[in-house]
Design a protein that fits this description.
This protein is mainly beta. It contains two helices and twelve strands, in the order βββββββαββαβββ.
Length: 219
């Protein structure tokens, strides 16, 4: 992967040392037997992850069990984590909720695409990746854009990251639409050996997840 900028330009604060890690999410549920719509509030929790390279990001989640959280954000730096992963987390001495271990893998997968210099990842995703993936019958999204050159993409079916998604991304690179790609989940790169990774820069704060959208913008 191409190295990203040391200090990301983020919408909102990227340098919060003690962020508020709990919010609430509104979900609209339609009763199939009635015309009414029920609005349900779910508490959201922001969980901090540190990649093996020391890059720290805060992903949104919803609690699915006692100290078990289901991830809602598409990770930019982390490995072995996708939308739908269930993880264990605990609050540290500073009040930050931090990842401890994976409890259950996601039914989906995460891939990341670097676009060529001069291109914008969000435009490439919306104009090329989404339309071509639909033509080939692949269910993808949401995505997280770390503009200008990186997009992290959720693949709905874990079994499709290879060869279906991988060969699709290889074709994008052959056509000059992409420059590099990697699979982030499933992957063993994020398994710690020895001491846990230490954060080496500002925290990448993901925006709140939104229902029925295909992407989130980080900058």
């Amino acid at each position: 992967m191409v190295e990203g900028p040391a200090v990301p330009v983020i919408v909102g604060s990227a340098l919060t040392t003690r962020p508020i890690h709990a919010r609430r999410r509104l979900l609209r549920r339609q009763n199939p037997n009635e015309q009414s719509v029920t609005v349900v509030q779910l508490p959201l929790h922001r969980i901090h992850f540190i990649s093996p390279e020391g890059r720290e990001e805060a992903l949104w989640s919803v609690e699915s069990g006692e100290m078990i959280y289901r991830i809602l954000s598409v990770p930019v730096w982390s490995y072995r984590i996708s939308v739908g992963s269930e993880i264990r987390a605990a609050v540290d001495e500073t009040g930050v909720l931090r990842f401890q271990e994976l409890a259950r893998p996601s039914p989906g997968a995460t891939v990341r695409l670097i676009v060529p210099a001069g291109a914008v990842a969000s435009q490439v995703y919306l104009q090329h990746v989404i339309p071509q993936a639909r033509k080939e019958g692949m269910a993808i999204g949401p995505a997280t854009f770390f503009n200008p050159r990186l997009v992290a993409i959720h693949v709905h079916a874990r079994s499709e990251w290879w060869p279906k998604m991988g060969e699709f991304l290889n074709r994008l690179i052959a056509d000059g639409i992409g420059e590099q790609w990697e699979v982030a989940d499933p992957d063993e790169y994020g398994v710690a050996s020895g001491l846990p990774p230490q954060s080496e820069g500002p925290v990448l704060m993901h925006p709140l997840p939104a229902d029925d959208t295909e992407a989130s913008y980080l900058n």
